[in-house]
Amino acid sequence: MSSKNKNKKPVVLFVKEEKEPLFSKKNRALLSDPLDDNNPITVQVLGICSALAITVQLKPAIVMSISVMAVMAASNVIISLLRNLIPNRIRIIVQLVVVASMVILVDQVLRAYAYDVSKELSIFIGLIITNCIVMGRLEAFALGNGVWKSFLDGVGNAAGYGFILIVVAFFREFLGSGKLLGYQVIPDALYEMGYENNGLMLLSPMALITVGIFIWIQRARNRKLIEKN
Length: 229
What we know:
The structure is a single chain. Strand 1 (179-180) and strand 2 form a beta hairpin. It is globular and about 65 Å long. Helix 4 runs antiparallel to helix 5 and helix 9 crosses helix 11. It is built from 11 helices and 2 strands; from the N terminus they run H-H-H-H-H-H-H-H-H-E-E-H-H. By secondary structure, it is mainly alpha-helical. The chain has a two-stranded antiparallel ribbon.
């Protein structure tokens, strides 16, 4: 055998690419980053109106968080599946149609199984359609990524959004009315000693102040989030 044939490398016709694990480090980051370093409310400053409007009580905040998570996860998956079929000129319209369909479905489920909460949330469930977090993730992520990553991104950002809502609602209901989920948690003995609920916490401006305190604590703990002048 000639030296030329000895040095010749075999030609590999089929190379099987190694698949990325479902919960690889990058995929886990899609779930964890929105909870801290890339939170939609405290870092991206999106969805502030919900934090002001529905955080007087803990129960509506939890239901709203779950509703947004269902809408975002489903919408991200659908847009990711259709991303190569959607003409660029009408992509926003398609996104709105998909989100509106998911919101209507969630609204009907709430009306059927949690009517009192649905009535309390009123128009705010419908306003999920125009929530900048939902539309922003469809435009920035789902249109350019696969189904699994888009699903994780939707769940992660909705979880980050819901986390802030629940934290704000916890302090507002606890300090404002002495209750959590409608149940009194501050004992009567404390009221007999002269304690009074802080009614100021039930006013809308206190939601913004509570979010502001959370942002301050977050940036004090993580200095890289502080914007440079």
